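#lab-general

N.A. 3:47 PM
ok so I finally got the sequence cleaned up, no stray characters, all 267 residues accounted for. can someone with queue access submit it? mine expired

B.Y. 3:52 PM
send it over

N.A. 3:53 PM
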Amino acid sequence: MAKLLVKPDGTKGKVHDISPKSAGWGYVGFSLYRLCAGQQVREVTDSEEVILVLVEGRAEISGSGEDFGELGDRMDVFERKAPHCVYVPNGSDWSARATTDCVLAVCSAPGKGNHEAQVISGIEMETRGKGTNTRYIHPIAMEDRDIADSLLVTEVFTPDGHWSSYPPHRHDEDKFPEMTYLEETYYHRLNPRQGFGIQRVFTEDGELDETMAVSDGDVVLVPKGHHPCGSPYGYEMYYLNVMAGPLRKWRFKNHPDHDWIAKRDAG
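B.Y. 4:20 PM
back already:
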């Protein structure tokens, strides 16, 4: 199994380059560029569809022969503004030219050619959870939006002292409608940047049980099992989730020992 905690490779250029091959799974890819103003990148999509997320800064984006102009509305991810995002289908290409220093995430998964290149609009913040389980969501491309073949992408802001992806839940079996098999990546940011967060990835049988201290810019791979994370007092946590599997549905089960929390809050 691939190492679950992936540190950035440097501070400029392509600092993350996670493929299904490097992760040891079959669907999700995630890469991240840190670009200086004026820098340009271009990639072909081959067999994969892509969602570009401008995490921070502005850039001129083109994809699949269309020029989408300058995009980007938040200079710091913790402004909590909705991100500017672009979908690009498989069998195409995309390019980005940074007009300010920017952070560009590239989320990928197998494409089927069913959707056209487009700016993903209408992203509105949602609140999830109660008490110190409260967090704030930007559902960029979840299953209620028919804008991708495989990709499910969302952003989460977890206030300091709160938990997220909690109660612990898993989506690692292909048995819809009870559960769907979805691989997942977490791209973490912390505010202030010198902070840390905690993420545990574990299976109920104990075969996998890793608890990681995540720093600003780290990526955590979730091949299976439960995967809660927590943010210590004084440090706000952000993460960008990418999920994909054989079916573009998000169906999960809470850990049986902790499902009572969800049932209590629902009541």
